[in-house]
Design goal:
binds magnesium ion, single chain, binds adenosine-5'-triphosphate, 4-stranded antiparallel beta sheet, globular, alpha/beta, Rossmann fold, 6-stranded mixed beta sheet
Length: about 260
């Protein structure tokens, strides 16, 4: 079953002729239930633009997008807000936790916004925090815990309402390598359980090696795809190989951020 189908997505920024930026030039993408897909591409290739469109944060200039059976472009206002709240989960590079709320309150946000009964909220929040080893930190504030714990809290918040699709933009970008590994193993476990569908944008070949499948984009177009067949280590080598071919062919794949 397809969770996401995008056909011919185009995004043009600007309105002045001569000053238009063609950020997406016809992207086709299909993601099945339970898949873990990574998007890689050089700086400025359109990754964030694509993610923002998939997230309903921005409208495409052309093309079609269907997520969990809903034609996203047709939605606006409250219907769009409801769709995003119920069907999507987000993990950002800089965690985006609210400093004035405890970790448990941050995780509860998607449910509270949906006015779910307090008892149900408590049960879901406790369950998801326990699975990420955050039970001891529930009452703490984001500034009282480590970056890794903050990011695990952000992942807990992204999945607590069992969204159809989790969208992550450089989720390991601000983590040390041990915390990044924990986060990626969390994604891999959610994925192995079969019910969570994850789309992750990353510059990092190690992060990408945890996915099933990679879509490489360049100049707003898909220019290569890679599917994992063997072990993660073997997939990592294949990714490096693909990136080195692209480097030789002049595509700059170096990360923009450290
Ligand atoms: N709001 C905007 N207005 C005009 N141009 C934009 C806007 N947002 C992005 N762009 C341009 O669209 C292109 C794609 O940008 P985007 O942010 O999607 O790239 P990216 O692949 O996420 O890059 P990075 O790896 O640096 O995060 C770039 O040329 C960028 O300058
Ligand atoms: Mg980006």
């Amino acid at each position: 079953m397809a969770v996401l189908t995008a056909n011919g997505l185009v995004k043009i920024y600007g309105s002045e002729p001569g000053a238009l930026v063609h950020a997406l030039n016809g992207i086709d993408l299909a993601i099945e239930l339970g898949e873990f897909v990574a998007i890689m591409g050089p700086s400025g290739s359109g990754k964030t633009t694509l993610l923002n469109i998939l997230a309903g944060l921005d409208k495409p200039s052309g093309g079609q997008l269907v997520i969990d059976g809903e034609p996203v472009q047709a939605l606006s206002g409250d219907a769009l807000a409801l769709f995003r709240r119920r069907k999507l989960g987000f993990v950002f590079q800089d965690f985006n936790l609210l400093d004035t709320l405890t970790l448990a309150e941050n995780v509860a946000l998607p449910l509270a916004l949906d006015r779910r009964p307090a008892r149900e909220v408590r049960k879901l929040v406790e369950g998801v925090m326990a699975r990420f080893g955050l039970e001891e930190s529930q009452g703490r504030y984001p500034y009282e815990v480590s970056g890794g714990q903050q990011q695990r809290t952000a992942v807990a918040r992204a999945i607590v309402h069992q969204p159809a699709l989790v969208l992550a933009d450089e989720p390991t970008g601000n983590l040390d390598s041990a915390s990044a590994r924990t986060l990626l193993e969390t994604f891999a476990t959610l994925h192995a359980e079969g019910s969570t569908t994850i789309l992750m944008v990353t510059h990092d070949p190690i992060a990408a090696s945890y996915s099933d499948r990679i879509v490489f984009i360049q100049d707003g177009k898909v220019y290569s795809r890679l599917e994992r067949e063997g072990t993660r280590e073997a997939f990592f080598q294949e990714i490096l190989h693909t990136l080195s071919i692209l480097e030789v062919s002049g595509v700059d794949i170096r990360p923009t951020r450290p």
